[in-house]
């Protein structure tokens, strides 16, 4: 009972840690063997008998009886007179088994045992947590905001596991308060030392893909396949979807009546603009769809260089490029092709970069930002419109227009 009381005192926290009795006893045996090695130099001649049902264990030391005065290793040998104090009929050469009481290890050793046991159980718990979350990589998970730091939000789940949502893994418009529930994907799980580091992401394209699975039944059931997702978090995304059943319109099913199905996803992503397009193996058609909402006139593809030259009417160019160049950049990522946009009649036009001797580079860059990269594309726009759409002064724009007009007047 002496051992049992001590073990119970060691394991009093096991219920909080949700560790089963059998695992606890295995950890206890390992801890005690380490203690025996420290005290006696070796644990090879010790038997540890574990009784998980009772929550008890016994420690027995086995030694050989030698003649008095001939003991060379007191851990493995015992003198005849000492052996006969245990049993009076022992003879030289026989094996003696003597139970070791935990209290015999000394108070200091018992305190060290307890600390070692706590450490081992934490290590065991961390391994379990690591394996649990490693299996959840790439899956949606929900946790509560516990602490907000400058570079990360610290979340806790229902079991008290800490999950980190770094600033760069958040959507730019994300704003959290303590106690808020946050959804994201488990992006990575690593063991640093013995502690698992769990990273959540809301900016990863996989998060959007998993939201489609969660919110759209046909995707969850496998009737619609999400072929590829590309994102500029919080700004714009493009999702290519396909269905093996010709009776199902994959885009219509994902968007829903008046956008009813995709509305929840858009809201979750901070009003991210999501274009859902039909996937196709027809590359010309795929690139055309990827540039939506722009209407493409014609496409010339160089498969070897992975480039596509797209011809559009002048009024469609800014749609193809999109605000901040987001639309054309995502279309390129979705299709895997670098897309060059040309206007119809561009052979009679002149690139703005040709005027770099007369127009400063930063001014040309301002026009590029809104999809205007040729002289005619700028001249087609009203001055007031250009003032609104760029960060340029009216006087600067008038100077540029005068320079461009001179080119065509010549």
Mean pLDDT across residues? 86
| Largest sheet, spatial ordering of strands | 7-6-5-8-9
Would you report the number of β strands? Answer: 15
Supply the helix-strand structural class.
Answer: alpha+beta
Give the uncertain stretches in residue-range form: none
For the report, how would you describe the main beta sheet?
5 strands, antiparallel
Q: What is the CATH topology assignment of the largest domain?
A: N Utilization Substance Protein A, Chain:P, domain 4
Report the helical percentage: 25-40%
CATH arch. level architecture of the largest domain? 2-Layer Sandwich
Strand proportion, as a percent range, falls in 25-35%
Report Rg. Answer: 36 Å
Count of the domains: 5
Structural shape: elongated
The CATH first-level class of the largest domain comes to Alpha Beta
The total of helices stands at 16
**N-to-C span:** 108 Å
InterPro entries: KH_dom-like_a/b, KH_NusA_2nd, KH_sf_prok-type, NA-bd_OB-fold, NusA_N_sf, TF_NusA, TF_NusA_bacterial, TF_NusA_KH_1st
Subcellular location: Cytoplasm
Subunit structure: Monomer. Binds directly to the core enzyme of the DNA-dependent RNA polymerase and to nascent RNA.
Domain Transcription factor NusA first KH: 202-279
